[in-house]
Amino acid sequence: MNTRLMMRRYLAVVGGASVLALGVLTSAGLAQVTANSSAFERFEASRPDSNQVIEYRVIDSVLASLVIGNGNTSEVRYDAIKGDGERVLTELASGFATIDPTELNADEQLAYWLNLRALLVLRSAAQAFPSAKAEKLLEPGSAFYTTKAIKISGADLSIGDIDTIILKRSAANPNVIYGLALPVREAPAFPTKAYRGATVNAALDAAARAFINRSGSVKADADAAKVPQFLIGHRDRLGGDDPAVLAHIRGLAAPKLGQKLMMTTRLSADPRLSLNAFAERSFADRAAFGGVSGGSGGGAGAGS
Question: What's the pTM value of the predicted model, to 2 decimals?
């Protein structure tokens, strides 16, 4: 694959200074990591009057090639990311370092961080695939969360650091947590299209409803609602106690699920964790990045 040619094709500046293209540099929860939030206070600044918009078409193309959306769920072609796919993700992530996020408005910032995080999560999970066990990969303090993966505005950041930056926004919109996709089936679906500032909050709301209403995600068992570990890990962002989290879930539930949850008064955790790896079907199905074709396009949580 000619990576440079692909990026030149998609990373275009569209008219004037209001649109930013991600440049490419030639060189270089389930488990929440405790971080020193003060170290990232610089990233809380924004430009409410900014009309700068990042063009994400190349990331749309890469996500569509690597993530298989299937209704409210998604699978990832981790085998396809090995080698050339991993280099593509590294170069795309490096492009974010050419942009100062504090010069963006708050919604553009949120899209920026979610999209950067998505690329880093795909790369990190692919590097650990196929030998990594989900529970070990995502345990508190694991290399997945703590490895410094990108330098933004002079700060070396890990996935856990970026989570800290993103979760600052959850006070205004708790559904921000549903943008924190993880490489397991028991987490919100991975986006198949980049988030956009203009639609990021609507996309996160859609991702929240898709996750809560996914078949088997939330179950009513007598007086308990059995929920994925993902929700338990983020309960502090949803009110902290069982009644508050249950109210949040009921607010997102479709009528049939909402009815089942009417009598629940407490939460119980579903311990299941499984990597959301897409299984190759045949050599005849091979497509971009050495992956395979098949599966439906689109997925919950993607901006438009």
Answer: 0.83
